[in-house]
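=== RUN LOG ===
request id: a7f3
mode: sequence -> structure
chains: 1
length: 205
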Amino acid sequence: MNHFRFNTLFGDCTALFAGMILTLAFAPFSLFPLAVIAPAIFLATLLSISPKRAFWRGWLFGVGLFGTGVYWVFISIHYFGHASILLSLLITGLFIAILALFPAANGYLLNHYFPYNGNRKILCAFPALWVLLEWFRSWIGTGFPWLTLGDSQINSPLKGFAPVFSVYGVSLIVLICSGLLVNAYRHRRNKKILSLHLLSILAIF
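=== RESULT ===
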């Protein structure tokens, strides 16, 4: 049963919005709770839709995240590389579109191989795929390790996990919290399960 009601347009816009607000989790804003909330919203938009639609929503999420998070690429190309505004916009837009393919792949693979909305999908597959794709993004070609989710936690209690589990381990922990948040909402009518999930997030932090 789908506990979230995201019709086509609303779900698409919600995924885009979730990507945009995730940027605020990073410096200089450092609103680190958004690193849990934004992926949880994104995950909620992926539940009970086709893999093709999940790919599209993942791409929109990526456009929101990288569109607001890598604007400095335009500044580098235009002001320091002395390229024209049009060329700088074109290169930056293409760069954002390519980076957005990573969360798009997350959405597609998640719903293709895990079509049922259970704990395995929400608490295991979603975090694992995200971190795997983060790692892949960090070294493919020349690599682009910016906006790795774990980096958003340098001012949060989760920073203590970094020396032990690395930045990718922190990303995984954050995403498990996102999954717990989604599950808490899915089981909001069951106060015992709701409390268990929320207390688990609190315990992790």
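=== NOTES ===
The longest helix spans residues 162-186.
The chain is about 70% helix and 0% strand.
=== END ===
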